[in-house]
Every structure is written in structure tokens, then in C-alpha cells.
């Protein structure tokens, strides 16, 4: 019997809110996610790793496994040329995913994004009890981020950069942190919107003064950084979701997305499917565009797609011309 395989081109996935546009590298090798159907592993293989490696060696002379996946999908990601990818697919045929969705307190919210800025007051753990004993998630040390940056609120912080670094080379640590540290702000914003502790006396340069808090201020947070200054790669996102599933978080927030894609090309949809079938609730961003037809993303039916239609305040600013005519506009700076 032939193993059945789906190849997912691990395309750049854009983080919302900030214009991540990674430069096109004209390298021959591209990153692919190879999905293997575990059920049809030929009996001569003793384990899956072995089977994956052999499949890869059958098309590539210098196979380089970026990740292997056990939870989110069965398979691996690797660097291949377009030709090798085609060959791999031809050799093994294809299969469709998404069969068998399972109809099946201390809440842990996982966030896959650009990491987290641990100094944020929204991560204050005052009043939190001990970290739940079942929690096995990791707080990983790295550039500008130490194990001591985790606390009873932020109970997990790790990062996934293999595909990013395979494409662009080693991370330049003078520009960005090879750790869960958020060098951008987007991840801290999404994480604390979901689960930020209550912070009194907050404002944005004097605007919107008041109390800031996330939707679930008592929930714990686990952060999985898969997005970098140059963008996010499907293989890294999938590896992050793999860890999310293994860590058994309750809710996963994903403000990452591509333009509307077929499910089979949509890494977030793949990962979310497996996470949902393990009982994880998933909320995804609807995108930053619209309101036009087909301007949203993350629309697969097993996730909750979230968008804001309007906000409850405005940010007025005025332009006064030489003739004293005054025009009202909108700005984040008065
Ligand atoms: C669905 O849930 C049941 C009970 O928890 C479990 O035995 C089964 O393996 C799950 N199926 C899938 C596809 O995850
Ligand atoms: C944490 O990571 C930083 C940066 O890679 C390193 O300099 C430091 O020695 C590490 N600390 C520990 C305790 O491993
Ligand atoms: C989705 O797949 C169909 C059939 O393969 C193809 O015709 C269509 O162009 C694809 N759409 C997108 C958005 O990729």
C-alpha cells in the first residue's frame, strides 16, 4: 500500500495589524509540510520517524528535517526543491484531511503570535494561586527572556524559529530576540486582550484613560512565539500548535492569517482542526480588511472567527489651516 501524503507549501503567513512582508528569497529550497497517513505506514518500518526519514531520503540527497509532528498532524516539515516536492507527492499519491472531527477552574489560554513582553503590567500575577500541577508547559530561556520572566499568570513561553532561520539564516540577535520576547508588540497585544490582568490608570498617551483588562483576566497565559520580524512560516506555526496540543491548553488564540485560501493550503485550518478535535477552543482573527466581499480570513467552520465591527470611543484630532478653517480627523496623537 502506498503512503498517502499531502504537501502543504509552507507559505508565509501574515500577522494582522502590522505589515509583515518578508522579502522574496530566490533560494531553490522551499519549506514544505508533509502530511503522512500514519495508518498506512508499511510494516517494515519500526517507527514513524524512520518512515518519514526514508520517504524524505527517497527524493532528497541532503534531507533536513525541521520538525516532526505527532499531534497536530502526522508528518514532518523539511526543505525541498519544487521538483523534489513534486516527486514526493507523485510517489505517494495524496489524501484529504479533516475527517473525524470529535464531537466531543483553571483556564489556560495559549497564544501563537510574536511572543510576549513580560514587563507588561497586564501580566501581573498578584492574587493568582500556584501554577496548576497538571501543567507541563515550558518557560524557555533565550535572548532577553529568562525563566524568571514567567510567573503564576504567564505560565508558558516558548518559541519556534527553525523554518524562519532555514530561510533567512540565523536570527540577528542585535535586531530581534531568539526567545519568546516580543520585539514587535502584536503578540503582547493579542495575549493581553485575551487574558490580561486588571490594570488601573491605563491610557494611550493620555487617550482612553481607564482600567485595562483582558476578556478573561483570571486565566493563565501560555505564549508560543512563531512570528518574527520577517514574518511567520507555516512550519513554525504548526510546530507551535503541536506544542499547544501537547500542553493541553483550553483555549487557543490565533491572530494570524493569510488571505482566504483553500483549506488544504491553510496551515492554521489544519492545526486548528486537530486542536479542536482534542477539545481546545480556537478563536482566530477575521483579518484587518473590509468591509468588502471575501475580505476576511480564518473562516473554517471549526474555529470561532472574531472581528470588531466598531469601537466604543474615538480618537479625534484637528487640523487647523492658515485661514483658521478647522477639520476634524482621527489620530492616535493629539
Ligand atoms: C474523540 O474523543 C474520544 C473520547 O475522548 C477519543 O477516544 C477519540 O480518540 C477521539 N477521536 C479523535 C479523532 O480525536
Ligand atoms: C539564557 O539565554 C541567554 C541568551 O541565549 C544566555 O546568555 C544565558 O546564559 C541563558 N541563561 C541560562 C540560565 O541558561
Ligand atoms: C482552490 O482550489 C480549487 C480547485 O483546486 C481552485 O480552482 C481554486 O482556484 C483554489 N482557490 C484558491 C483561493 O486557492
UniProtKB/TrEMBL annotation:
Domain Peptidase S8/S53 span(s) in chain numbering: 105-307
Signal peptide, first to last residue: 1-23
Name of the featured protein: Peptidase S8/S53 domain-containing protein
Organism of this sequence: Lactuca saligna (Willowleaf lettuce)
Taxonomy, superkingdom: Eukaryota
GO biological process terms, semicolon-separated: proteolysis
InterPro entries from the UniProt entry: Peptidase_S8/S53_dom, Peptidase_S8/S53_dom_sf, Peptidases_S8_3, S8pro/Inhibitor_I9, S8pro/Inhibitor_I9_sf, SBT
One Gene Ontology term of the molecular function aspect: serine-type endopeptidase activity
Domain named Inhibitor I9: residues: 31-93
CDD domains referenced in this protein's UniProt entry, alphabetically: Peptidases_S8_3
Keywords: Signal
Similarity remark: Belongs to the peptidase S8 family.
